[in-house]
Amino acid sequence: MYASRLDKLEDLIISASNLIPILDPGHKYILSELANYKEELTVVSERYQFIINELKNGDVPEVVVEEHERLIEGITSFVRGATLIKDSMNVEERSILCKQCAQGDSILAIGVKQVEKATKEIGDKLVELIQK
């Protein structure tokens, strides 16, 4: 049950991650582009928050509680990173704060590593449990 729930949430993580725009802070975007990117990042953050809520509300096998918490921390990094990127955009001035955007990208990258590590550890422990 837990593994199948994680599998469904993984699909949501991938679809949300695919919405994150790749920005060039030096590029002068037109107003509608930046407005659209900000909206996409709002949707991404909302989807990640939904995933976090789903992870917090379900039953977790005792053997993977710590890894499950690290998984939530990783996805929380996705929300923080996407929010920083979104907030780095000034639609009216058609500009992006380079340092803040880069910081958001870095936080997203950290989140990816956390999620990859936690999901691998969860999978390994569940397989080990099944094999006993």
Structural notes for this entry:
It is built from 4 helices and 2 strands, in the order αααββα. The chain has one domain. It has a two-stranded antiparallel sheet with strand order 1-2. The protein is mainly alpha-helical and 132 residues long.
List how many beta strands DSSP finds. Answer: 2
Classify the beta-strand content into a percent band.
Answer: under 5%
Q: How much helix is in the residues?
A: over 70%
Shape: elongated
- Multimerization state: single chain
Summary of the model, kept short:
The chain has helices spanning 2-17, 31-57, 65-87, 98-131, and strands at residues 89-90, 95-96. It is mainly alpha-helical.
Annotation keywords:
2 strands; two-stranded antiparallel sheet; 132 residues; elongated; 4 helices
Show the helix and strand layout.
Elements: H1 2-17, H2 31-57, H3 65-87, E1 89-90, E2 95-96, H4 98-131
Antiparallel strand pairs: 1-2
